[in-house]
Amino acid sequence: MNxxxxxxxxxxxxxxxxxxxxxxxxxxxAGYVFVSDPEEADTIIINTCGFIKPAKEEALEALQNAVSxxxxxxxxxxxxxxCFIERYKDSLEKxxxxxxxxxxxxxxxxxxxxxxxxxxxKSKQCFxxxxxxxxxxxxPPGWAYLKISEGCSHECSFCSIPLIKGPYRSxxxxxxxxxxxxxxxxxxxxxxxxxxxxxxxxxxxxxxxGLPLLLGxxxxxxxxxWIRILYGYPEEISDSLIEVMKEGKICPYLDIPFQHSHxxxxxxxxxxxxxxxxxxxxxxxxxxxxxxVIRTSLxxxxxxxxxxxxxxxxxxxxxxxxxxxxxxxxxxxxxTSSFPSGDPLEEKEKISRKNKVMDIQAGxxxxxxxxxxxxxxxxxxxxxxxxxxxxxxxxxRFQAPEVDGVVFIPYAExxxxxxxxxxxxEINDCDAYDLYGRIVP
Length: 441
Ligand code: SF4
Known about the structure:
The chain has 441 residues and is α/β, with parallel strands linked by helices. The chain has helices at residues 14-29, 53-72, 83-95, 111-115, 161-165, 173-185, 210-218, 239-244, 263-268, 275-288, 307-320, 347-370; strands spanning 5-10, 33-34, 43-48, 77-82, 101-103, 143-147, 149-150, 169-170, 190-194, 226-229, 250-255, 293-300, 324-329, 376-384, 391-395, 407-410, 422-430, 435-439.
C-alpha cells in the first residue's frame, strides 16, 4: 500500500502549535508518515499566523513556496490553515488557485477528511481541542504547552484576535486535568498554560476564581513538577491567584502583557491598567510571591504615541525592571477599532523606538541575571546544543520556553541520562539573556 506522507509547518503562537499537534495526531491515527522536508511530502500543511503584519508576510511567503513546489509536482496537495486563512480566505483563494484545501481555525479536527476529500460538517466556531483529541507532541519531551481556552472577550483596539477566534471559551477543568495526567504519564514534567488570557479562565462559565481553582487541581498531579502561567491580563491578577502561586509546583513566573504605560495611550488601546497602576501591581506581586519573575510585552508606535508618551514608556521600563520583555511595533489591522486612526509613525521610527526599549531592557536583564551567580538552581535539561552536542541546554523555573533565555552547561560529564530531568545546577556566569553553570554532583 502507498505510504501517505505529510509535512506540517506551524507558525505563530503556542496556541497555534497545539492545533498543529492535534492535526498531526489525527493524521498519525490515519496512518500518515511525517517528513520534515515539504519537497518529499504528498501533502503540505501550513498552519499560519495572521494577527500582525510580519506574521502575515511570513504566511504569504510560506504559501508561495508551497505553490512553487506544487508547480514542480502537480500531485502534491496543499492545505492552508490557521489565522491568516481565517481572516483573508476570499482574497487568498483568488491569489492561490493552486491551493487545494482551505482550513481556517474551525476545523483542525477534520484535517483527514479535508485532505482525503471526504465531506464533513464545518464547525461554526473556533476549534478548541479536548483531552480526547489525539495530539502529537512536538516540543522536547520534558515539557509541553496546555491550552485552557480559545478566543478572547477583551476589546483591545489594536488586536485582531477576537475577530479571528471569537469570544472567550474555557475548556472544562476536568478535561484539562485529564490531559495534564496524560502528559505526566508521558514523562512531561513542566506544563505551560496558554490561552489568549489565562487569568480570565472560567469567567465565561460564571466562575469567579477559575484559574486558582484549576491550579489547585493541577498541583496534585504526580509527575508534573512545574506549572507556568503564560498570557495573563493585568486586571485579572486576583489575590486568590497570588495566594495559589505560593504552591511549590507553580513557577514563580507571570507573563503579563501591559502593552503600554501612558494613560492616554492605554485609553486609546481600550485597556485598563496604566503605568502607575502597573507598577503598584508589580510591587504587590514582588512583595507577596517570593522570587517572582515577570515577563511583559509592549507595543510601540501606536497612533498618538508622541515623544512625551514614548518617554513615559521608557521611564516605565526603567522603573518596572522586568525580568523578560518583548516589544512589538504597532501593526495597522483591518477590522480593529484603532484602524481608523491609521498608522501615523514611519516604520523606521517605530523600529528605532523598539530598539531603544530593548536596549534599556538588555541592561536590566543583565542586572537581574547577576543575582543568580553562585546560586544552585533547579534546571530542566531539555537536550544538547545542536552546534555542540557536548553542551547541555536547559531552563530554570524563571525561564519560559522559546521566549526567554536558557542555561548552558558546557562539557557536562554525564550527558545522556540527564536529558528531560530536573538537575541542580550551580550558576557561574551570565549575560543579558542566558545563564551558564555546571551540574552539582
Ligand atoms: S487580551 Fe487583548 S491583546 Fe490579548 S488576545 Fe485579547 S484582545 Fe488581543
